[in-house]
Design brief:
Elements (H helix, E strand, L loop, with lengths): L1 E6 L7 H9 L5 E4 L14 E2 L13 E6 L2 E6 L4 H5 L1 H8 L3 E3 L6 E6 L3 E6 L11 E8 L5 E8 L7
Parallel strand pairs: 1-2, 2-3, 5-6, 6-8
Antiparallel strand pairs: 1-9, 4-5, 7-8, 9-10
Length: about 160
């Protein structure tokens, strides 16, 4: 089982990133989908792509990675072509999983009856709720995928 933590749109807030890393210490990968707005070296634990507010960064606008035989595409989601015709844009890239941020809204869906789209929302500036969010993507050894929405700040656990 591969566990991937996906966050986006933290806009200069570093402590929430550290909090999620601490809570999800057993993750195999950490992805940040842009608009981190902090120095690049602070993102060294993450596979990171550039957002529309990340002006002086060396991270790429897009990134593809293969995990457990599945092609995963990462980008921020502010690309004009993606905004105006999501289905064709995703179809042309042809990933198994398409990860994006930008909207500050958690979303899981499919495109073209093939590609799973995941937006983790925003840890610090949610536009769909009063509490921030991130996503946990799990891929088992047979390629079965599950996605879970997690809230931030974390709720206090009952004893």
């Amino acid at each position: 089982m591969t566990k991937i933590v996906i966050i986006s749109d933290t806009h200069g807030s570093y402590q929430p990133i550290l909090d999620v890393q601490t809570k999800e210490y057993d993750a195999d990968y950490y992805f940040h989908l842009g608009d981190f707005c902090i120095p690049d070296y602070l993102m060294s634990q993450f596979l990171t792509v550039k957002g529309n507010n990340d002006f002086s960064t060396s991270f790429p606008n897009k990134k593809d990675i293969v995990i457990n035989g599945l092609k995963i595409h990462l980008e921020h989601g502010h690309n004009y072509e993606f905004q105006i015709n999501r289905n064709n844009y995703v179809k042309n890239i042809d990933p198994d999983i398409f990860l994006f941020g930008h909207t500050h809204r958690f979303y899981v869906g499919t495109v073209n009856n093939k590609t799973i789209l995941i937006n983790p929302g925003s840890l610090t500036n949610p536009r769909d709720d009063v509490i921030g969010s991130y996503a946990i993507l799990k891929i088992d050894d047979n390629g079965k995928i599950s996605v879970e929405k997690k809230e931030y700040p974390f709720k206090k656990e009952k004893k």
